[in-house]
Amino acid sequence: MIQIPLVAPFDGWLCALEEVPDPVFAGRLLGDGLAIDPLGDTLHAPAAGEVVAVHEAGHAVTLRLAPGVDVLMHVGLDTVRLGGQGFAPLVSVGAQVAAGDPLLRVDLALVGGRVKSLVTPIIVTESAGLVFEPRAAAGPVRVGDALGVLVGAAQAGEATAAFSPTAQRVLRVPLAHGLHARPCARLAQVLRGFAAQVRVARGDEQASLASPSAMLRLAVRHGDTITLLASGGQAEEALDALADLIASGMGEGAPLPEETPEVIAEQPSVLPLEPGDVLSGVTAAPGLAVGQAWRLARAEPEILVQAGGIASEQARLDAALAALRQQMDGEASQGTPAQQAILAAHLGFLEDPELIAATHARIASGLSAGISWRQELQAQAAALRAQSDPRFAERADDLLDLELRLQWQLAGQEPPAQEAPENAILIAEDLLPSQVAALDASRVVGIAMARGGPTSHVAIIAASRGIPALVALGERLLTLAAGEALVLDAGGERLEIAPGTPRLEQARAEKAGRAARRAAALASAHQEARMADGERIEVFANLGSLGDASKAVAQGAEGCGLLRTEFLFLNRATAPSEAEQAEDYAAIAKALEGRPLIVRLLDIGGDKPAPYLPIAPEENPALGLRGIRVALARRDILLAQLRAILRAVPSGDLRIMAPMIARVDELQAVRTALQAEAEAMGTAMPPLGVMVETPAAAVMADALAAQCDFLSIGTNDLTQYTLAMDRGNPAVAGGIDGLDPAVLRLIGQTCAGAARHGKWVGVCGGLASDLLAVPILIGLGVSELSAAPAMVPEVKALVRVLTLEACKALAAEVCAVSSAKEVRALVGGLLMRVQHETAIEGAGQ
Ligand code: PEP
Ligand code: MG
Predict the structure, then answer these.
(1) Cα(202)–Cα(179) distance, integer angstroms
(2) Does residue 398 surpass a pLDDT of 70?
(3) Is 764 a catalytic residue?
(4) CATH of region 278-298+417-499, choose from 3.30.70.20, 3.50.30.10, 3.40.190.10, 3.10.20.80
(5) DSSP state string for 792-819
(6) Which atom number of ligand 1 is nearest to the Cα of residue 715?
(7) Which of 717, 726, 750, 777 to mutate to test the pocket of ligand 1 (most atoms within 8 A of CB)?
(8) Which fold has domain 2-152?
(9) Which ligand is nearest to the CA of 608?
(10) Does residue 341 carry a pLDDT above 80?
(11) Using one digit for the tens of pLDDT, what is the confidence trace for 108-140?
């Protein structure tokens, strides 16, 4: 016999479900339960369980108390209409909660003023055969008071009957608030009138329409495209009735948003591009390309919907997986190191026993191999996309890539070859890694994407193949006609549309000049970088893995100016041990062969979540617990990292720096911890630096410099926080510019503050890899530049032709103008003069 006690989730007035002024709840269409008219502003858990649904409008939370036992708390009536106003969920799906834990905060005044009732039904939507026995009388209750008990015999989970759909309807959901609790209850009620089972599929996930609770977890929204799948004697009739009912809007219809057309060429609502237009994007792979617009046609094999029996579908899947693995092994043996790394990650997915078992389970429920694989991969991709860190979201493309590749294997066909014209610049909404890997780089000279992110695998492959690429160019890109002449300046973050013959000629000449300069820079990459008037600038490299270290040394890096230690901490279930960390740091130090190594302490949290750091959901992760704030809150992690670093890196090479410092006391806390660990281990205290990534740190640089050994400016974050533009948000990607005078003035202020205490300043953010920024940074007082490994030769070569005097004059000029555009024009002028003089000198020798 099972007994699950339920306690009151709200302070308020308890009443019977019949008293709820809504026939769906009062008629128990969603299940049995009680209701509370709340007086307190926080909804608590009525029992221990797992959060399985939080409605996007924040007004409803579902807890799973035991397998097959779900309880829905629906705050107020018609509250879905508020679209989230007045509700602040305190938990997210997947959280484990204890009875009494807070789940949701409600602004009672705001919500109460806008809806007809705040009364909150507490409904057992799935009972697994348990019966709800109320144990409290109507009247006042406090959070934690006993409400009732779910009792019954332990029921083995119902075996899911094999489901072999014989009919289907695809439709878009016109209900303004999607399929929320009441429409789900009504649809389930209608379905009971037919001899049919119906499941609702939304791309990647499925739920039984008979279970409002499962439907709520599916979270179907306004405008979503869903497929109703039915089996049973009245499958067709049931689908006709249900599809008609949904299409009618069920009294909540609203105009449907435009659907993204399959063929990206047909985008009617955006202003078409015209000759002379320029689109701004974000650099994904540097370089300059001159060529013509070209599109890949999306090709997809036919996917068998009708399953041919469980055993034969599972065998088809296994055979296709084996064939794809073999094909990818072959590709890996011929690919570049970056392609090999990505293919290894893809092979890992193909060998993932959980992924394969989950797909087999879908086949066992009656679906075909192709549909099962598609649903499983799309579900996994959706889970990745839901992560706030764009780097996780970008990995979703890898799964979708594999999804399609396996469909071709299942169909026993090759995707059609698509021949690019000469000098093609590939235009796409989004691309898959395999599509970029398969491009013919002798014909495709550039890539321009409407969407995408600069840290995706697409970006990495494009860079490794030397194809300049811009992402986040926006929907207007898709209005381009094939064959249009283009200049893609990835470094300048510009795509120029039909700019006219003189500009095309100039860009071609510039491209040839760049190629020659790059070759020359590489030839002298191992010489030191001393300015034309003698000033020494250290050119280091940023590293994110052991592989980067040897690459950086080969490119002439004089050390590592930023080791992003997060690479060890992300994508795993537990924090790496001290020994594991020490091993990795030691390997990197060894690869640097005695060159200085600046290890950045863990920069995690906020938008770089780690599952073993339970940080509550934050409204503004970039302004929340991240960087040094996490390390100071989790001293166990900080101390283990400090010990690992001190143990692994020879003391002469080692420098340590702390990320996201905003206050002097944070630096003091790190120094105290480091000193204590160094003393305990009997090692020398290494130089300790501060990363200047917040405007506060820049403004307080003198106070920080008094207590640290060096400062290193993280221009990526400094730009985001100075301009108040999220660096991971494609909507503002075009506006984020580290050359904005506001950022440059703060860099100048940092250098001046450090100079007052005789401390050196480096730059380890993206500006150190931007050739336009280099003279300005040096002019502002920066003496160390830590660039992307591939950019080290060109940064060094540029430093050698500059003079400190010219850089200082330029820095003064750029700090006096009011836009990044003016800054670019000024520095462009200086670089042209320098190149001209160098060319004359070179010719005279
Ligand atoms: C920066 O913010 O510039 C920086 C170097 O740190 P990250 O890019 O790792 O946040
Ligand atoms: Mg940073």
Answers:
(1) 12
(2) yes
(3) yes
(4) 3.50.30.10
(5) HHHHHHHHHH--HHHHHHHHHHHHHSS-
(6) 3
(7) 717
(8) Glucose Permease (Domain IIA) (2.70.70)
(9) 1
(10) no
(11) 877 887 777 899 999 998 888 888 998 888 888
